[in-house]
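Researcher: Structure for this, please.
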Amino acid sequence: MQIAAQSPYPSRRSAVLADNMVVTSQPLAAQAGLAMLAQGGNAVDAALATAIALTVLEPTGNGLGSDAFAILWDGQELHGLNASGAAPAAWNAQRFAGRVEMPFRGWESVTVPGAVSGWVALSERFGALPFADLFAPAIRYAEDGFAVSPVIAALWARAAEQLGDQPGFAETFLPDGRAPRAGARFRAPGHARTLRAIAQTKGRAFYEGEIAEAIVAYAKEHDAALSLADMANNRPEWCGTISTAFDDATLHEIPPNGQGIAALMGLGILSHTPIREMAADDPQALHLQIEAMKLALRDAEAYVADPAHMVDVTAQDMLDDGYLAARAALIDPARAQDFGAGTPKRGGTVYLAAADASGMMVSFIQSNYAGFGSGVVVPGTGVALQNRGAGFVLDPGHPNVVAGGKRPFHTIIPAFLMGPEGPRMSFGVMGGPMQAQGHVQMVLRTQLWGNDPQVAADAPRWRVTEGLGVACETTLPAATLQALRDLGHQITLEAPDNAFGFGGAQLIHRLDGGGYAGGSDPRKDGAAVGF
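Model: Predicted structure, token format:
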């Protein structure tokens, strides 16, 4: 990888170089993490302070009712954490009888929030600073207020049109009856009180005490199933990682119930194609990537679920190299195809990365799923509850069918890249179904084509949709778009400022001589900061 003096793509940014670094989608949150490093904290402390601040500063993508996942290098080995919550115990297929699909908003989409338990687990095992110290920046922003940034203001306004009638939403997020405009100061006193309770009790108040009681009381008021037992039974899981190699780089993802396996499959399929012979912006290289991701995503949709329910087809079956080679052989270099799922075994989100001078690196993601999640906000607490229940299906024969105590299919995935020399890059790409596709694009750009993190973040992106459909950013050259059409791809154009559609990439790449290079995506007002 070479650091570019000037990006070949529309951008005014260069990669940030430093020994200690935080990158994320909101500048004030990045500064919160950097403050922990300056106080003697490590990369985990920085990541957590950033994540906690993001619940205040970017409520359009995450909150206290989120789930979270993390991959971290502790200096010796790689660890994976699944802090996603389960469905209420009372949920079953009969509860949703008569529906074609799971509810997307409201109380019937709410699963147990796992992010807070993830913060506690990471801090207890790897943090250097006292847990309560990590909350200081977030509490200050919640109590004193902050100026809402432009991209977040636009997303907030869009959500207000859809969610204004959801329980508790307007009271918390629509001061004066409307979404705050860019530059307006937003205060969240209830959020601050909840943060203090979490900080002082190391999360117990959220799962067993006053906050849990407030959440469950509001659930009962609306005939929802979430109970105190559901909250108290939540446990994060140290799940390790699963991986696929591409030449000398190995991509690590969290195992199912997330879609990270689709990124691994896409990369594994591409390793059996001639993509190494092509340039980054060659239409044929894009064609191969698009076809590989179609194959991977079709399988993920068919087979990924809570791993305890993936009995007939396991993650190992899906990552078998012989199977991936067989899938690669289905790609026709001359035409686009609409693939179905294979037979591996016959029978809106915030992302951040942090790294410190000791070598510790963290890849962390948390999300309410859709913008503001379910739209349900518990009055007086600032707790906006996620809508991860929408990730279940109602087909009784599918491994991801809804059931009590079960984790749903998840879109949010952190990524981590290892090389023979050790840790190489912590990174992620936000945006629902874009995430696995974005991971593959970032790996190839940085590892195969030598882009630095900022160039990789700036480069135009594409996203597989349905059938032969591919959404492309308008910054892709007209000749490239026409070449893809000629291959049979059904192209739709979307503006690069579609933060959800194409995600916001955040990357920290280790430098050979020590220190890091960071890139942050302008699609979401991102910031890379360091010292």
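Researcher: Any notable elements?
Model: The longest strand covers residues 422-429. DSSP finds 18 helices and 21 strands in the chain.
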